[in-house]
């Protein structure tokens, strides 16, 4: 429920930032409301900092980076939890990797996780 309220407030603040002002007031039951127009005389005007508009392409790219980070983390956890790693090629031939090779897979995947998750961090302007 709180998450929904936070999202609603954030969306309202973003929309209101373009409109100019955000108002906050309590109704007769004590519930707090936010809006872009004052509902009655006992409202509080809130300062909304300027924020860049949400670019859908940038948002999708960020979501893709975060998903890639999560996939790589899951792969790393699989390698760490597996007693051994084997691979089957297109011809059905299976190769089991040695413990040293398994540790190399883990080290390589740790690097990939670090790279993917660093790029998944939100970009600061």
Provide a quick synopsis of the model:
This protein is of the alpha+beta class and 125 residues long. The chain is 53% helix and 14% strand.
Q: Can you describe what's shown?
A:
- The protein has 125 residues and is α+β, with helices and mostly antiparallel strands.
- The protein has two domains: 2-46, no CATH class; 56-120.
- It has three helices and five strands.
- It has helices spanning 2-19, 56-81, 99-120, and strands at residues 22-26, 32-35, 44-46, 86-88, 94-96.
- It has a three-stranded antiparallel beta sheet. A two-stranded antiparallel sheet has the order 4-5.
- Helix 2 packs antiparallel against helix 3 (99-120).
- The radius of gyration is 25 Å and the shape is rod-shaped.
* Cα radius of gyration in angstroms: 25 Å
Instruction: Tell me the fraction of residues in β-strands, as a range.
Output: 5-15%
What's the arrangement of strands in the largest beta sheet? 2-1-3
The counted number of beta strands is: 5
Largest sheet: 3 strands, antiparallel
How many domains, as an integer? 2
Q: Which of globular, elongated, flat, extended, rod-shaped describes the shape?
A: rod-shaped
Give the SSE string: HEEEHEEH
Structural class comes to alpha+beta
Q: How many alpha or pi helices?
A: 3
Q: Helix fraction? A: 40-55%
Contiguous low-pLDDT stretches (5 residues minimum) are none
**What do the pLDDT scores average to?**
79
End-to-end Cα distance: 30 Å
């Amino acid at each position: 429920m709180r998450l929904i309220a936070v999202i609603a407030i954030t969306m309202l603040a973003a929309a209101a930032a373009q409109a100019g002002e955000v108002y906050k007031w309590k109704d007769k039951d004590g519930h707090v409301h936010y809006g872009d127009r004052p509902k009655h005389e006992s409202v509080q005007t809130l300062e909304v900092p300027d924020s860049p508009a949400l670019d859908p392409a940038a948002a999708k790219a960020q979501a893709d980076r975060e998903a890639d980070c999560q996939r790589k983390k899951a792969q790393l956890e699989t390698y760490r939890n597996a007693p051994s790693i084997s691979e089957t090629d297109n011809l059905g031939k299976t190769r089991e990797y040695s413990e040293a090779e398994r540790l190399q897979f883990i080290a390589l995947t740790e690097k990939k996780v670090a790279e993917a998750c660093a790029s998944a961090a939100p970009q600061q302007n």
